[in-house]
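== Fold encoding ==
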Amino acid sequence: MIGAGILWYTRVTFPLTPLAYILILAHTVILMVGGHYTYAEVPAFDWIRDTFDLQRNNYDKLGHLAQGFVPAVIAREILIRKHVFNDRRWRDFFIVCFCLAFSAFYELIEWWVALLSAEAADAFLGTQGYVWDTQSDMFWAFIGAVLSLLFLSRMHDRQLTERGFRAG
């Protein structure tokens, strides 16, 4: 709800590209589905787990991939439009670092919630007995950020250029 408020408030003064809005919507759907079922029990991913004889329901990994994929485009748009970096390589490096920091902060929030609500910790964390869950979550956010920069930068540049911003 806070994010929706921010998007509504900035829709005139700092409108984002259609790509950014579509990705935000997709990420919102991923989060709502995970919240509705709990990440460890999303039915489609139960089917995938059972079909491929996997150890766990990996819907949370999709969420963490999106946690890097979507913020990478948002950060990229802000950095380009605000002219923060002159060098594309430094900008992309910073974007990946930002996404990793965002993911790490989310893992800290998960930990704090688990400490405060001991009985609900397993459902909230969704580790499903996977000892490397936190590190794996951050790795998926890293992969998401890198994939986003590799596959969406050209499209994002076109949309920024169409809106009068020097991209690239």
User: Anything to note?
Assistant: The mean pLDDT is 91. The helical segments are 2-10, 18-37, 43-51, 59-81, 88-116, 121-125, 133-162. Residues 2-162 form one domain. The radius of gyration is 17 Å.
